[in-house]
Every structure is written in structure tokens, then in C-alpha cells.
Amino acid sequence: MAGKKLSIIVFSGTVDKLMPVGILASGAAASGYEVNLFFTFWGLNAISKRGMQAQPQVDKNYEQMGSMMMKRMMEMKFPMWTQLVSEAKEVGEVKVYACSTTMEFFGLKKEDLAEFVDDVVGVATFLDRAEGGTTLFI
Amino acid sequence: MAGKKLSIIVFSGTVDKLMPVGILASGAAASGYEVNLFFTFWGLNAISKRGMQAQPQVDKNYEQMGSMMMKRMMEMKFPMWTQLVSEAKEVGEVKVYACSTTMEFFGLKKEDLAEFVDDVVGVATFLDRAEGGTTLFI
Amino acid sequence: MAGKKLSIIVFSGTVDKLMPVGILASGAAASGYEVNLFFTFWGLNAISKRGMQAQPQVDKNYEQMGSMMMKRMMEMKFPMWTQLVSEAKEVGEVKVYACSTTMEFFGLKKEDLAEFVDDVVGVATFLDRAEGGTTLFI
């Protein structure tokens, strides 16, 4: 029998939407899920070395609540979402993919991306890896 | 044979994205689906008693169309999304969960939430309940 | 054995989120997936004849990067997302549905929509078509 699998198309680049990516990846990996993350568009920009140096942004719809939530997370010493992804990779079977089409749009090379990226693939390859499991678009 | 199942991670807090949560939950429950809703981040804030008293907000990207759509919904006497969730719970097997991590971020207790919340659970428990069905991130 | 199936609830109306709809539909159709697109809310507005004449908008959260990305896509002569959907329909088994409830909210008729729309259906019918495959909410 095939094991449990969670795949996420990480499209968004605001920190409020990247937090659940880290939390879901880490929770699923700890529960024995195979996890596949496919970073594309603004999500891919967020894991470029340049994007990772930028000030994290909260979705404009939730700006007022956002600063309060970020403050609370720091008080609670809650880990950054990138740290959650890195830790998930140590705990379980977690693969991180970068979208080849977006790399071309942004003119990025693999060495411009976070070190936790395993591979640069196209959408058909990602769909193949995700097949038969739960897939989310975030 | 296992029955049909629809699970939704309710992340967003704008009324335009909460409407489809109500519509999907109610349509799926009426069609005999087991439905699981997991409210987190801005979605959880939207079902806190304080959030429910606030003026509903439409996503800033669609502000102009938003007021027109809200007006049409009132003219049509379309039910509020929270009412759709409550009605879905009467019609079918619908469970509403609140995300424990977000409760901690916001300093919320179960009694601060809408009455249709069944339980406060972590992400691993939710993934377990959702396993084998269709899962959406809204 | 049932074949592979990808279904997308197309809720969003900004061009950055509609691009992946086109890319996913086209990649999946070329890989032999059955594809179902269900346009609702701002996504449905985007495929109304009036919406298709409007200037494409990028999500306000990514405005600065957006203009750069749109420029790159034009330089690369990347096809418009609507063209990707139309081409996907020629290549594979791709069905495009419009949400009946949203049609009513917006006061739209089938002849007001893009020509690639196959049918106007409700949420229960869509869930039925999507059953047993991968379903995304974009």
C-alpha cells in the first residue's frame, strides 16, 4: 500500500501564507507523510536569496492584524517558516522543487535559490510526484 | 467502501473567500459528503466572536466589484456564509475545527469562537481527518 | 483503472493567479489528465466578455514585481492564460464550467462568457466531476 502524501504548490509570497506551508510540511513530515513542495511565482521569489533578504510582508488585506500576529510569534519564539521547512527535511521525506517556468520569468538560476531546494522541475513532473496524494495550492 | 469527503483549510478572512466555504460546505453536505472545516489564521479570526462583529471586508484586489456583489447578494436575500455552515451542520456530517497553533498566536480560547466550532485540534489531527478525500486551501 | 484527473476551482481574477490555471491545465492535458475548470466569483468575472476586455491586474501584494514579470512574459512571447486554456482544450480532455450561483450574483448569461465555456453548473455537479482526482482552489 502506498503511504500518505502531501504536496503543496507554493504560489504566494506573503509571510502569513508561507507560515502554513512550513507548519503543514513540518506537521506532515512528523506524521510520516511524504511531502512535496513546488515553489512557483511569488513563492519562488520568496526563496530566492534576494527575496529571503527582503522584509517579510503580510497580505495587505490583514495588515493591521498582521503586525500583531508577527509580534506574538516573536514573543513565542516561533520558528521562521524557512526553518520549519529545513527541519522537516531532517525529520522526514520532504522534497523541495522550484518551478522551471518561473525561474525563466525571473531570470533565476538554481544557485540563486535557498539551499533547501532539491531540484528544478516543470509542472508535469510535479503533478506526477503529487499524484495519488493530497495537493494544496497556497 | 469509504464515502465521499471534502475538507477545507479555511485560511482567508475576507468575505468573498468565506462565501465559497459556506457554499461548498453546504453543497457537499447536501450531496452526502463528510465535510471537515479547519479554521486557521485569518479564517480563525473571522469566526472569533470579535471578528464576527467586525464589518465584512472584500479582498482589496476586487474592491470595486465587491460592493456590487455584496449588494446583489442582499437583494437576492442570499444567506450569510456562517448561516450556510450552521445549516450544513444540520443537514449532514459536518465538523468544524479551530487550529490550536493560531489560537495561541491570537490568545483565543474556545469560548471566544463561534458556537458551530466542534473542537480545537492541531494540523496533524486535521490531516488525519482529511486523509483520503478532497482537500482545499482557501 | 480510472485515469488521472485534475480539477481547479478558479476563484481568483488577478492575472498572476490565472497564469498558473492556464499552465496547469495545459501541462496536465498534455500529460493525459482529464481536466475540469470551474470558474466562480472573480475568476468567472475574468472570463466574462467585459472582464476579458479590462486591463489585466496583478495582485496588489506583488505590484512592484508584477510589472517586471508581465514585461518578461511579453519579451518571452509567453502565451496569455486564456490561450493556454483554449490550446489545452484542443490537446486533451478539458472541460470548462461556469458557476451558476455566481452567474446569478453578477447577472451574467452564458452568451456573456468566453467561448471556451462548455457548461453552466452548480457546485454539487462540479464536486461530482472532480471526485477521485486532484482538486485545487486557486
Automatic annotation (TrEMBL), chains A, B, C:
Listed InterPro entries: DsrE2-like, DsrEFH-like
One Pfam short name: DrsE_2
Matching SUPFAM superfamilies: DsrEFH-like
Gene3D superfamilies: DsrEFH-like (3.40.1260.10)
Family annotation (PANTHER family): CONSERVED WITHIN P. AEROPHILUM (PTHR34655), PEROXIREDOXIN FAMILY PROTEIN (PTHR34655:SF2)
Protein name: Peroxiredoxin
